[in-house]
């Protein structure tokens, strides 16, 4: 195909960078537009397993990412006061995850992707798209600096609150399904007090989870999820809402919340919402990643689907011209995305159990992992499920 095809990629997150990488391999030129003034680093921890791990391998990112793998850690389930209920040793966590799994900071994954495309794609930071017009031959985007770019394809990889989706497909409210929960996740500047290095504590109570991870300096993080009676009000309050929802807990939580108060801007804080659309493309505009199908953290796999979706998109564009390639790509991907979206409900029961009985069942399941032979069984059933 030579270098004659151009794609405008909106969003330099996981989906956008992976698309730029894969399209370059397919012979395309990519212009990447990112709203943020510069690349972000750090962020929350992502697990890459199954199709996500396979896509990392196919995109040639395994060697660079392996250096940033946070590895498995000792997992301690705690009571509200922070005292240990029971501990799952690191070796058992590792065995249950299997060999084809990795845990990386979102910023590290984005850095590795960025390094892989920095020399081949053109980047425009602090820029967004204000208008999109298309005809039979191509698509023209107007950028926020007033300039325009003509391309064969425009990829909206601008996340859950996608601007491309609003411009081309309609208002977010038409596609967003709220799951009535909030999530907060942020890196810890200081090693959290109250837990040993190389371990993570998790408190799971009715309607909420608080997890604090001590993997040493620059590698520690915190994660909170809870059911919210009014997600709009919580969003308006910002990350401070986490102090109200989790202020009663002990262990590493008070220190994590104190660090959040010192630097609320470094936190991810949003309502948990899925995006459900009948079609991910319109003519020469296609949505990719959370912009198209956000499955939520309750389903896991969002980053994995962004990577495998980008990889499959590049493959489809090698075979056919858009929009035929987009139709083939979507029918290949949709069953897996819909399966993951449905699994988010199971995730809610895990991260925010509806009753004390559900909490007890979840405790028992985790406790069982430590029994001899069970971790091998779990490993086998995980492999089978994938
Ligand atoms: C706490 C948490 C834990 C998670 N854990 C996991 C996990 O363990 N495993 C997993 O696979 N997934 C996980 N996920 C999901 C995963 O993080 C997302 O699915 C993934 O980041 C989606 O990538 P994306 O590139 O589609 O969107 P995003 O990461 O949201 O990137 C969008 C990019 O577009 C930019 N942008 C936004 N609007 C515009 C605009 N108008 N113009 C230009 N640029 C714009 C943004 O600045 C950003 O750079 C988790 C999510 C959360 C919140």
Automatic annotation (TrEMBL):
It holds the Pfam family FAD_binding_3. Residues 6-317 form the FAD-binding domain. GO terms for molecular function: monooxygenase activity. InterPro entries: FAD-bd (IPR002938), FAD/NAD-bd_sf (IPR036188), FAD_aromatic-hydroxylase (IPR051704). Keywords: Monooxygenase, Oxidoreductase. It comes from the Bacteria. The keyword DNA damage does not apply. The keyword Ligase does not apply. This is FAD-dependent monooxygenase. It comes from Glycomyces rutgersensis.
């Amino acid at each position: 195909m030579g270098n004659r095809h151009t794609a405008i990629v909106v969003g330099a997150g996981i989906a956008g960078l992976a698309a730029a990488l894969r399209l370059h391999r397919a012979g395309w030129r990519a212009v990447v537009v990112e709203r943020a003034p510069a690349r972000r680093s750090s962020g929350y921890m992502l697990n890459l397993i199954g199709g996500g791990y396979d896509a990392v391998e196919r995109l040639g990112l395994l060697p660079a990412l392996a250096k940033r793998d946070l590895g498995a850690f000792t997992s301690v389930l705690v009571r509200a006061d922070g005292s240990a209920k029971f501990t799952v040793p690191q070796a058992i966590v590792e065995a249950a995850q299997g060999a084809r799994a990795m845990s990386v900071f979102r910023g590290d994954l984005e850095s590795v992707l960025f390094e892989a495309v920095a020399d081949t794609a053109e980047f425009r930071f602090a820029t967004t798209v204000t208008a999109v017009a298309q005809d039979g031959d191509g698509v023209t985007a107007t950028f926020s600096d007033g300039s325009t770019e003509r391309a064969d394809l425009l990829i909206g990889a601008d996340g859950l609150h996608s601007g491309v989706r609003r411009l081309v497909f309609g208002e977010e409210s038409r596609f967003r399904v709220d799951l009535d929960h909030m999530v907060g996740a942020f890196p810890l500047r200081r090693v959290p007090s109250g837990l040993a290095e190389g371990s993570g504590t998790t408190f799971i109570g009715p309607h909420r989870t608080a997890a604090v991870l001590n993997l040493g300096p620059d590698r520690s993080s915190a994660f909170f999820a809870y059911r919210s009676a009014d997600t709009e009000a919580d969003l308006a309050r910002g990350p401070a809402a986490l102090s109200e929802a989790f202020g009663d807990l002990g262990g590493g939580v008070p220190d994590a919340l104190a660090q959040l108060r010192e630097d609320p801007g470094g936190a991810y804080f949003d309502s948990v919402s899925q995006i459900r659309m009948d079609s991910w493309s319109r003519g020469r505009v296609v949505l990719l990643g959370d912009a198209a199908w956000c499955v939520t953290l309750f389903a896991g796999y969002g980053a994995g689907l962004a990577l495998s979706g980008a990889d499959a998109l590049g493959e489809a564009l090698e075979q056919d011209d858009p929009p035929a390639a987009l139709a083939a790509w979507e029918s290949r991907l949709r069953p897996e995305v819909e399966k993951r979206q449905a699994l988010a409900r199971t995730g809610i029961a895990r991260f925010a159990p509806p009753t004390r009985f559900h909490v007890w069942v979840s405790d028992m399941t985790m406790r069982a992992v430590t029994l001899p032979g069970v971790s091998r069984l779990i490993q086998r059933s995980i492999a089978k499920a994938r």
